[in-house]
Design goal:
By secondary structure, the chain is α+β, with helices and mostly antiparallel strands. The protein is 55% helix and 12% strand. The protein has a four-stranded antiparallel beta sheet with strand order 5-4-7-6, with helices on both faces. The chain has a three-stranded antiparallel beta sheet with strand order 1-2-3.
Length: 324
């Protein structure tokens, strides 16, 4: 199931930001391209079929096509600027930078440095050597979201979830009432749990989702804004109190689930992080909730006392998806 429902935030962020265009930095890089040539008292940026394109015209074109993205990029940098990076952030940023460089080197063997440099210049950096700094910015972005989710655990209904899946029998039509074969497999799970078998061990023994069974059925951390899960599964998971195991939940897409709420309080989620070494809140925003960081950035901007005129505030809120 997790293969269909997880979102890879890391890849999305890299694709979004490296593919984005920053009008300010493009303008700054290109404004002297035809150095020495002017028209009507302005620098000429380039010519097309003998017609001059002046700096102000070029800037207007860039702003029309990419101005919002440019302003948002500057807003995000300003919001994150005061965060002091931890050693863990620096280590993660270095590892991510090396992974990206390896991928680019594989795709563009002879020109990967130039390709990376062009991409990074579009978001305000100088060369491919700045990739680690860019990744450190991403680590700060994750941390702001994680801190926000941690402070709003109850409101967001944050839950770390595990499950056991019994799939529909081969050739059978998905039905709310299981077949005899499906019922027998479900009964084996019920008997094991009734006999005191730990849920994680039961998942390893009986779950028919190979992507999570070996890990004791752990899906990860979700919340009320998660949109990538099967609806029946999510509704049942969010309704569970900490430590509770659901009855069998029918999903027409996958089969029958038994779901466990492993942790849903700040204290138990902190204990889970201590035990696993993985921040469940970063797991949430990395995989399942694309909206946390937007609210976190806006809240931090307010805390920093940042103010905007009406049009700019409206644009930023629209970009962030903030409606209240």
């Amino acid at each position: 199931m997790s293969g269909f429902i997880k979102k890879n935030w890391f890849i999305c962020i890299i694709a979004l930001l490296l593919a984005g265009v920053s009008a300010f930095f493009i303008y700054d890089t290109n404004k002297g391209k035809l150095k020495g040539k002017t028209a009507d008292g302005e620098d000429v940026v380039y010519e097309i079929n003998g017609e001059d394109v002046k700096a102000s015209e070029y800037y207007d074109m860039l702003y029309e096509n990419a101005g919002d993205q440019a302003v948002y990029a500057l807003f995000e940098k300003a919001v994150l600027a005061g965060i002091e990076p931890t050693d863990e952030m620096k280590t993660a940023a270095a590892a991510q930078a090396q992974n990206v460089i390896a991928n680019y080197r594989s795709t563009y063997p002879a020109t990967y440095q130039d390709v990376l440099t062009r991409a990074l210049r579009q978001v305000g950096y100088s060369s491919y050597e700045d990739l680690e700094e860019y990744m450190l910015q991403y680590q700060k972005y994750l941390q702001v979201g994680a801190d926000y989710a941690r402070a709003h655990t109850e409101d967001l209904k944050v839950r770390n979830i595990s499950y056991i899946l019994i799939q529909f029998g081969e050739g059978s039509t998905p039905e709310t009432t299981p077949t005899a074969d499906e019922q027998a497999r479900m009964q084996a799970v019920d008997d094991a749990l009734a006999a005191g078998t730990d849920f994680a061990e039961a998942a390893r023994q009986f779950s028919e989702d190979s992507s999570t069974a070996a890990a004791g059925g752990v899906l990860g951390t979700i919340d009320v804004n998660t949109t990538s899960l099967d609806t029946a599964f999510q509704d049942a998971a969010l309704a569970l109190n900490e430590g509770e195991v659901s009855d069998w939940v029918y999903s027409p897409n996958f089969g029958y689930f038994r779901i466990r709420n492993n942790a849903s309080t700040a204290e138990s989620l902190a204990a889970l992080q201590e035990e696993s070494g993985t921040d469940p809140y970063q797991d949430l925003i990395y995989s399942y909730d694309m909206t946390v960081n937007s609210r976190a950035l806006w809240e931090r901007a307010q805390e920093l006392g940042m103010t905007f005129n009406e049009d700019l505030e409206g644009m930023l809120k629209e970009t962030l998806g903030i409606t209240d």
